[in-house]
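[09:14] KT: can someone run the structure on this one? pasting the chain below
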Amino acid sequence: MRTVFRVSIRRACRAVPAPRSTYHYRSRRPEQAALRKRIRGVAEARVRYGYRRIWIALRREGWPINAKRVYRLYTLEGLPCATNHPGDGLRPRSARTAHRLPPPIKSGRWTGCTIGSSTGGASGS
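[09:31] RB: done, C-alpha cells below
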C-alpha cells in the first residue's frame, strides 16, 4: 500500500486503520524449527496419532512442552486435525438407532411406570 500510493507509514496506518506499532511489530517468539521437525516426524511415523498423542510422545522423549503449543505447531505444519469423534459415521444413522423401539402408540412418548394402588393407601397393601 505504501509503495503503490507513495505515502508515509503514518498515513498508511491511518487509512487502514491500524496502529503504527502493529506495522513495526517483530515477534519475540523463539524459532521452533527443531520441535516442528520432530512433530512432523512423529506424525509421519504414527499416522493415526493426533496432536494430543504426539504431545504425550514428545513429553516422554523429554521435550518440555504443553499441548496448546503442540496444537499450534501441528496446525502450522498443515497436519490434519480430527474434527469429529472417532467412530462417528462408521455406520449409517439408521443402523445406529435400529435397536430403539418406536413408542407404543402413534405420536406417543415413553413414560415411566405410573401404575399405583387404586385404594390410595400405601403401596403393597
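[09:33] KT: thanks! The chain has a mean pLDDT of 80.
[09:34] RB: yep, looked fine to me
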